[in-house]
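To make this tangible, we now present a fold written out as C-alpha cells:
***
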Amino acid sequence: MGLLTGLKLRADFSIQRINSIEMISLPLLISSAVVLITFIFAALQDWKTRTVYKVTWYPAAVIGGICAVLFWAEFIHIDGAPLVLFISVIFAGLCALFCILGMFGKADAKALILLSLTVPITPFAAYIFPSLAVSALVNAGILSVAVPLFCLGYNLVKGNRAPFWLMCSGKPVLGSSVKDRFGFLAETITEENGEIKKEFVRVLDTVFSLKVPMRHTRTLREHPEECADTLRLLEKCETVWVTVGIPLLVPLTAGLIFALFGISAVDILLSLLL
C-alpha cells in the first residue's frame, strides 16, 4: 500500500468513524479506559521493580477483548476497517516474535499486544495511521531519546570512556553494586593468573540480551548461588559498565496518552513528508 493510499484510507476511515461516533464510542471508550488504567498500574510496577505481575493484564484482556469483538462486529464492513484489523493482528504477532527473540521484555510485549488487539483506534481523535499501538510505540521511542542523551552527557562530564553506543546507554558502577542495579552487564569479566580482564560486549549482543540471563543484573540478584562465580569476579572489579535498564512501560504509557488524544509522531512525520 502506497503512502497516498494509506493516507486516503485514514481520511475515509476517520469520516466513517466520525459519522458513527455514537455507536462506537461506548465499547471503544470502555476498552481505552481499562487499558490505560492497566498501563499506568503496570508502569508503576515496572518503575519500582522492573517486574509486572501476570495478573495485571487479565482484567483488561477480558474486558478489552469483549469490547473489541463488539467494535469489530459493528464496523468490520467499513471501508478500510479490515486493513486496520489486519495491521493490529500483524503488529501483535511481531511483538510476540520480538519477545521470543529476546528483543522485548515479556511485560512490554504483553502491553503492546493488549493495546493492539483491544484498542485498534482511539475514540478521542481522528483515526491515527497505521494504528494506535504503532503510534504509541513510536511516541515512546521519541520520548525515550532523552535517556541516551542524558547518559552521554553524564559520561562526558564524568570523564567515562567506552564505545559510543555504551556511552549513550550505560555507565560504570562499583563492581560490588552491580547486583543491586537494573540493567545488563556490558562487559565480560574473566580472571587469568589472578589478573582480572574485562572486555566490552558487542552492541549486537545487547539487542538479544534478554536471552542471556547471566548478563541480567536481576539474575545476579535473585539467583546468587547460580551466579557465584560471576559475583566473585565482580567483587574484584573496581568498576563495571552496566547498561541503564529503561522501564519501557513508562514512556510507552506516556506515548499512549499522547496517541489517544491524536498526538502521533507517525502522523507528524507523514504530514512533513507530504
